[in-house]
Amino acid sequence: MPKAQETLLEINLSALQHNYNHLKSRIQNEAKFLAVVKAYSYGSDPCEIALFLEKLGVDYFAVAYINEGVQLRNAGVTKPILVLHPQTVNFNILMEHYLEPSLYNVKILKEFIEFASAHNLKHYPVHLKFNTGLNRLGFSENDINIITESCMNANSIHVTSMFSHLAASEDLNEKAFSLNQIESFKRISNNVMERLGYKPMLHMCNTSGILNFPEAHFDMVRSGIGLYGFGNSEKENKNFIPIGTLKTIISQIHFLNEGDSLGYNRSFISKSPTKTATLPIGHADGIGRQYGKGKGYVIINNKPAYIIGNVCMDMIMVDITHIDCQEGDEVIVFGPQASAEQLAETAQTISYELITSISQRVKRIFIK
């Protein structure tokens, strides 16, 4: 792997392929595979990642919002793209790029049927989302009558899939809750299919669901964070390889005397002679202020260097008093030596927040 000469995110496509193959090996009943590439593909690069996964054989993609789907289409992605949280104001853009909406309440269902009819669409693919316990988005079981009546009376749409989302599939202490969600989804989907007179695809499992609830793989499974090597549990992490290594370099080294201050608001006061390094990465790049003042750390020459003072917009300073290093040396913010989960824990947050915060001004490079 090349040494960093600037701040960059190194993305290992071989690790991505490993994670995909591992998840595929765990799928039951030849279920289809939907790759979630929302949030800039969890901080990596949605277009490069999606095109690579498409070559590997992924069946479906999912994004959160319509503009994310447009970006994939413009890059040449041809597989179906499910938009998990479409906004009615952008239905025309969704239609132009043949993106498939998740319809999750009666209001958006009726508005999309009205839109599809006004544009003379026939059997446009839609997906019905049901709430079985996450209580975020989704129809309730009480909506079944109006859903089925609306769908049966509209030949402008076709229900391609019905799905729900497990709330705690990574936590086996909540197994009873997850099983109750699965049974609720079975009951709801059977009721809807009986009334529709045909069988849409069913999907419910996220990454943890794939691993922990094979009985709920149904016709398709979904994975986002697992593909990128950031599982929710220690058990999952042993099987996944993180695909991203965030690197930077030492820009300058300073020597502080006892009583010297460092950074904005003099937030660090040296209690003894201290050697510090300034690194070209800051909260504008995704390293939030919560990592400062001795909480977060980076790796320099295989040793931890703690972030001291306040995180600046474009820079952080770290304590290198006990590290043999020089200006220009490579710094690992997270990667195989120190995972994103470990760094996130220092700020009492989760790796998802950290990796999706990496700004687009950080250069991405791809290796195999």
UniProtKB/TrEMBL annotation:
Catalytic activity: L-alanine = D-alanine
In-chain residues carrying the UniProt-annotated modification N6-(pyridoxal phosphate)lysine: K38
Record Gene3D superfamilies: Alanine racemase, Lyase, Ornithine Decarboxylase, Chain A, domain 1
Biological process, per Gene Ontology: D-alanine biosynthetic process
Keyword presence, ATP-binding: no
Domain Alanine racemase C-terminal positions: 243-367
Record flagged with keyword Methyltransferase: no
Gene Ontology cellular component annotations, sorted alphabetically: cytosol
InterPro entries: Ala_racemase, Ala_racemase/Decarboxylase_C, Ala_racemase_C, Ala_racemase_N, PLP-binding_barrel
Entry-linked CDD domains: PLPDE_III_AR
Cofactor(s) needed for function: pyridoxal 5'-phosphate
Source organism superkingdom: Bacteria
Annotated EC: 5.1.1.1
Keywords on record: Isomerase, Pyridoxal phosphate
UniProt-annotated catalytic positions: K38, Y264
MF GO annotations: alanine racemase activity; pyridoxal phosphate binding
UniProt family annotation: Belongs to the alanine racemase family.
Function recorded in the entry: Catalyzes the interconversion of L-alanine and D-alanine. May also act on other amino acids.
Classification via PANTHER family: ALANINE RACEMASE, ALANINE RACEMASE, CATABOLIC-RELATED
NCBIfam families hit by this protein: alr
Protein name per Swiss-Prot or TrEMBL: Alanine racemase
Organism: Siansivirga zeaxanthinifaciens CC-SAMT-1
